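Morning F.,

Quick status update on the modeling queue. The single chain you submitted on Monday has been processed. Sequence for confirmation:
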Amino acid sequence: MRDPATGELTTARKQIEKGHFLDAEYPKSKHMRVEVTPYLWTPGTWYVGKLAGIKEYIAHYRRPVLVAGDAPSDWFMLFDTDVQAGGERVWRKQKYTDALQLEKAKRADEQKEAGVRVDADRNWIVVKPAEIGG
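Structure tokens below.
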């Protein structure tokens, strides 16, 4: 976003990160006059993934406890679920379910070989689109 009066470039994410979103320093009137530009702010989830977005904007040190996905590109996020804290993984795409089953088994084997807690194959909920309103 660019302020046409000053030329200042910003993004909503940048203002939130600074703690200045709809406050005295960055009021609604200032937001309303900015122009949308192709200015990028990272992490760009299309580039580094949803997991990076979770770690950057939600918590750097806490893992998610409810994650849903429907494509292999969601696997980084799904496999980072905090199963030890009761986290659940929701999967809804039949097209990739066979590939996901193989990936779960592979990662569980790797965890076992590494001597770490095996949870890659645990806490999965498989749903059909109709079951979740889709």
